[in-house]
Structures are given as structure tokens and as C-alpha cells.
Amino acid sequence: MNVQRTRWSRVRKTLRVTVLVIVVFLLGALGLRLYNIQQGPPLAVWHTYVPDELDADALDDSTWQDYIQRENKIFDEVRRNVTDQLEDEDQVDSNRYFSGATVFPARFAHDWNRSYILEPAGPPAGVVVLLHGLTDSPYSLRHIAAHYRDLGFVAIGIRLPAHGTVPAALTDSTWEDWVAATRLAVREARRRVPAPKPLHIVGFSNGGALALMYALEALDNPKLARPDQLVLISPMIGITRFARFAGLAGLPAVLPAFAKAAWLSIVPEFNPFKYNSFPVYAARQSYELTQVLQDKIVKRQRQGTLAQLPPVLTFHSVLDFTVSTRAVLNALYARLPANGSELVLFDLNRATKLGPLMRRGVEWYMSGTLPNEQHNYRLTIVTNASASSNDMVERISEAGTTTTSDRPINIAYPNEIYSLSHVALPFPTTDTLYGQHPDNIEEYGISLGAIAIRGEVGVLITGTESLSRLTSNPFYPYLLKRIDGVIPR
């Protein structure tokens, strides 16, 4: 009996010590979070003013015209409540919300923050819905939309709720709202171009998750038009585990003195078509979306009904800081039946001379990731023809085989680029804002992709890391060619 009491006493003592250590750790983490918050810049009006967007229920009862009318009203309200209320220190040329700035979107010939519809010259051959990413705007898929338009498709690019206006909008928008907006866009697509003409959905990043979510919902709901093809670009099938606990990072925000805790980053808003600041709530929503999506995929696989999904063509960089490459492979493609799907992976530049500067293990990043057994989809890796050559080939493994064949694509990896990035894939190198070789460098007041960072530290309004990230795709012509392969003529 005494021995048992001694053991229980030790167990209780161990538990107390463990709890104490956890409490001390959490308090330390909270203290560090509060310290970092107070060191950062103050909240501006675009971090506090929240536009009145339609929620999921209202979106399901709305038409495209209803949505555009609300969108126009929201932009008018942002002008009155943000642009017209700026403090003197915020009226600078680098602020997209200052009407006198060169990056002020309303001064452009076309404000790509807004929803759009591109019509072909003749009778439509089909229709495509384009879904942009988180913190993004319809600008990101405008080139692919124009390509579909040129091939005879009506292209519908919807501005997802809480996007294109002010970052604060993302503090009051849920992933269910984004899925409802997807349903609305598809309803308009089928109203304009009825079946049996093809319906495609193109999704970039978070938009890729929304496209797949809609396609899964349409399997159960006969009122939802089923897409004939999904095209996913850097799809958000899975993200980092940090997002699961992002809500904890925002807990101090319940106290007015620590309102900045509701933000993971507070950054100057110099990009006319994308938010730079990022709220905790949006990170949590994106994580919840990926978890619900993965659960639906697993459930469908167990039911044996994934075969009803349309073919999925995905483009993804093997090095992606934003979303999980393993999730694309394991949570989606490893579960797909043989339905004509394909995964195209853009490898890092194996011929780069930056090898000594890369983190340990990066050059073998794909080891143990790619399947070395038969798979139900076509796998294509765009990679160097050899370790010493920048000439690129597509290394193809057909569905149901383990052998590969190489085919040149007649595009070389630029010497100065060691990999693609999450944000680069949908943009040609001539894109005005993000291209390395912009075709109209003055159009948007800034060309972020053409910036070569050289100079003294502490001068720029933002960190050089974000400006040095690759923002356009040297293999964009190849990407279009592969999309052409799934567009019926």
C-alpha cells in the first residue's frame, strides 16, 4: 500500500511539473507574441473597416447581377470609409488606398479587383469559371481567362467575398461564403452557356480547393451543374499545421489594447491587386477548408464514388512555401481512381550553381515523395535534361505504369532562377505587375516582378524577401499548351 501511494505521489508530482512547464511555455509564447505585436506598425483604417459582404445564405439566393450590384456598392463604401478617411501620413504614393497614388486601382483603365466576364467573338464553345487565391483578386487568372476566351469560351472570373477591397474584410468572411460564391459563378456560367457545352473550373491556390470542393458537392446535389474538367494551379489541398493553432495567436485581440494580435502580418499595402497584410482569422478559415476537403475526399474514396469526379489537371511547383506538395500527392492524387487525371510538377533547377547555398536536403526534396509504384493518374515532371543542362524535358509516367519517358519542351530554366514559387505559376513573364519582363512597365505604377534587389538595407518599406520571391512562370507557354490539351475544339 505504501509503495502504491509513493507511486501515485510521484505521478502527481510529475503531472504538476508537466502542467507547470506547459503553463510557463504558453505564457512565454504569449509574452513574446504581445511584444512582437507592440513592435509592429499600427493598424490603419484598411485593417479596421469591414465591408458588408453577402454571406453564404444570401449568395445562394442571389443572381450574378445581384452580386455585381453589391460589389459596386462595396467599392463605393470602401472609397468613402477608407480612401476618403486616410490620415495625412497614409497619403503616400506607395499606398493603394490613396487616390493620388500611382498604385491606386481605380485610376487604371481596368480595375482587376472586380469580377469580370470575357466573351468570345463568336458563339461560345464552352464556359470556364476562374477562382483566385486567398488575399488575391481576379487579376491572378486574367491571362488564363483571356486564353480560354480566345479559344471560344465565355470566361467568368468572380471576386470571392472579402477580396479585392481591404484586408479587414478577411476578418469577417468564412470558407463557406467562398464556396457559395463558387456556386453562384457556376450558376451564371450555365445560364450563359447551357449543357452539353463543356464547363471548366480553374482554381488557383485557395481557389483550387474551392473548385474541388464544388465538384465534390455537385456529385450529391443534382441542382449543381457538374464540371467537365478541373484545372488546379498550386492548389491548397493542405497547408502548414501552424494554421490549426492560428486562432490561439489571435486570442490577445479580445483586449482592445492588443487588437493587432488579430493579424499575422501588418505590411504596407503597395500591391494594387493583392493584400499584403494577413489576418489570423483567414489563416484559420483556409485550414478548416482544407480539412473539410480532405475528409470529403477520404469519404468518397471509401464509398468508391470518386470515379464520378471530372478529370483533374494540376500544375504545382515541388518547392512551395505556401501549400503542401505532399498533400497534393497523398491527400488528392493518391486517392483518385483512373479517371484521366494528370499531375504536372515543376522541379527545382537541378543545374543551378546555387547548390552550396541551399538548405540541406532541398536538392533531394522529392525523394520519398513521388510514387515509385503504379498510380492511377498521369504524372509529368518538368525537370532538367541533365544535372548540368538548363534545357528542360517533361518526364512522363503514364497511369498504370512505373516506366518514364523524356520529351524536350524547348524551354530552358533561366540561370538566375533556382525554382518556381507558389505565386508564380499563373503569370507569364510579360505580366505587367508580376512579370520579369513586363510588357507595360508603367501601367500599374509598379512592376514587382522586374525588381532586382540591390542596395543598402533598411531603405525599402517592406522586407526584401517578399520582393525577391519569383512572381512569374518561365514555363507559362508550356502550361497553356497543356491546358489546350483538355479544351475541346
What does this structure look like?
With 489 residues, the protein is α/β, with parallel strands linked by helices. It has a domain at 23-309: Alpha/Beta hydrolase fold, catalytic domain (Rossmann fold). 31% of the residues lie in helices and 13% in strands. Helix 9 (325-332) links the parallel strand 8 and strand 9 (342-346). The longest helix has 38 residues, at 2-39. Residues 245-259 have low confidence and may be disordered.
Q: In CATH, what is the homologous superfamily of the domain at 23-309?
A: Alpha/Beta hydrolase fold, catalytic domain
Mean pLDDT over all positions: 87
By DSSP (H or I, 4+ residues per run), the number of helices equals 11
| Unreliable segments of 5+ consecutive residues | 245-259
Helices and strands, in order, run as: HHHEEHEHEHEHEEHEHEEEEHH
CATH C-level category of the domain at 23-309:
Alpha Beta
Q: What is the number of E strands?
A: 12
As a whole number of angstroms, the C-alpha radius of gyration is 24 Å
